[in-house]
Amino acid sequence: MTSETGVLDISYLKARRKEIDILLDKYLPPVEKYPHRLHEAMRYSVMAGGKRIRPILAMTAYEACGGKNPDLINPASCALEIVHTYSLIHDDLPCMDDDDLRRGMPTLHKKFDEATAVLAGDALHVLAFQLAAESGSIEVVKEFSQAIGTNGMLGGQMADVEAEGKVIDLEKIQYIHAHKTGALLRASVRIGGILAGVSKAELGKISLYGERIGLAFQIIDDILDIEGEQEKLGKQVGSDCRNQKATYPGVVGIEKARTEAHQLIDEAIDVSRSLNGNGEKFILIARYIGQRDR
Amino acid sequence: MTSETGVLDISYLKARRKEIDILLDKYLPPVEKYPHRLHEAMRYSVMAGGKRIRPILAMTAYEACGGKNPDLINPASCALEIVHTYSLIHDDLPCMDDDDLRRGMPTLHKKFDEATAVLAGDALHVLAFQLAAESGSIEVVKEFSQAIGTNGMLGGQMADVEAEGKVIDLEKIQYIHAHKTGALLRASVRIGGILAGVSKAELGKISLYGERIGLAFQIIDDILDIEGEQEKLGKQVGSDCRNQKATYPGVVGIEKARTEAHQLIDEAIDVSRSLNGNGEKFILIARYIGQRDR
């Protein structure tokens, strides 16, 4: 997994990303189809790139658990990326984080307009459920809606909005991170497992893995907002501080945040080793999240 | 159905509305549960009242088609009302229609704030899918997502936004109405039929009924925005005109619009008479839509 020089071999992630980009292009409605502007806006945001970590997690979990049908896991995996994109579009709106830059390009409401950004976010939200339903599994649709509702992602977003400019404690920032980012990452591996029909015990382990990398992912995101390079990240650095956002380093300090992120990654790797299926790829993804600089 | 004095007996609709209000209260997350403000906002908009025409249509269709399990049709029916509410919340936003009044009360972004309105809309959107999934039918989830995506409701909303201030033709206004309002009303009856396992032929007739009342409903909405009483409607009249919105009377004139609405209602009644199940209630709903003044 790691070459002799210590550099992580991410060819698996690159290949998957390519595969996912092709699938997303296939699942998004064509611009030629009416209403053109709405379809154009949806594509603008989804096809702007990104790590595609959520669909990669779902596909990896599905295959590790013995799943064999790409026609079921592909739409479900892309649903996760599409819901992530919708959440970013609404998060970037002037009444929310008011961000101008995303993945090195103008945010959707800057490139188009606010009304189109609201509707394109809504349209991606529906499309995600449409694709989740294509998996043929009502359990997947349920898992999905739990992860992104007020018990999950939206609960975290609301808490994040409410925490702005306030002094918050460790418990609150953990709630925000576990819900705003963690819930969807956890659901990504779980959906792969559920669709492959994995045992309850194994699903429990997979969920634990998802929780650990989910929290680590967001802590590292916060650190990158302080120390990262704008060029690599494709978004403004320091925006959390400017917007008086609640962040992990803001609560525990940057060194402790870094230590905790690495500890979470180590725990995720330990869980990966205890899995029945091929844990190698889970380890790779955990290491990748631990090392990322964008 | 109509008493000797020609007044429509709507006790069935009133009883159903009461039943639906109790169900909605049960399905909405409690305010006591964190994040309180988000749950409060969701309840504010959903429990503000309304005709509950979409869940009534779904329940009526389900029972007329022989469906017997309230545990399946109840959540699916309420999902329709909840998605309707989310669409109104986002539609009322300053970047969209910028409305201050809805059902006689301040719109959600006026009562709370814009960020909360965006998130509460999103949260109701997820909740709707969660409830649709509780029907246990993946077909229902698919029908639902088709009706509210860019091929349905959102396509109509985008076209509506784009048409503002422009001269549009009959074809365009028909597209807007059939999609923005019609698609969800059509889906309401279809979901009842699908969940009851109705035959394809019967589902075709039900769909036709849904299309006719859907278009009539929106034409009458446009007429009420010109001629209605603000007090009864609970929203500002004349707002379409002020916002330079595309309306049916604006394209064909108010008299022709009225004639067409009545013709659509008559056609819906004709279809109701050809149904296997009890068409009486379908006729009542069509008549009610034709006569409504709010």
Poorly predicted segments of chain A: none
CATH C-level class of chain A is: Mainly Alpha
Which strand order does the major sheet of chain A show?
1-2
Structural class of chain A: mainly alpha
- Describe the largest sheet of chain A: 2 strands, antiparallel
Features:
homodimer; 294 residues; mainly alpha; two-stranded antiparallel sheet; 71% helix; 1% strand; globular
Give an overview in words.
2 copies of one chain form a homodimer. Chain A is mainly alpha-helical and 294 residues long. Chain A has one domain (11-291): Farnesyl Diphosphate Synthase. Chain A has helices at residues 11-27, 36-46, 53-64, 70-92, 108-111, 114-134, 138-148, 153-163, 170-195, 200-227, 230-233, 239-242, 248-252, 254-273, 280-291, and strands at residues 101-102, 105-106. The first copy, chain A, has a two-stranded antiparallel ribbon with strand order 1-2. In chain A, a hairpin with a 2-residue loop joins strand 1 and strand 2. In chain A, helix 14 (254-273) runs antiparallel to helix 15. The radius of gyration of chain A is 18 Å and the shape is globular. The interface between A and B is large, with 45 and 46 residues.
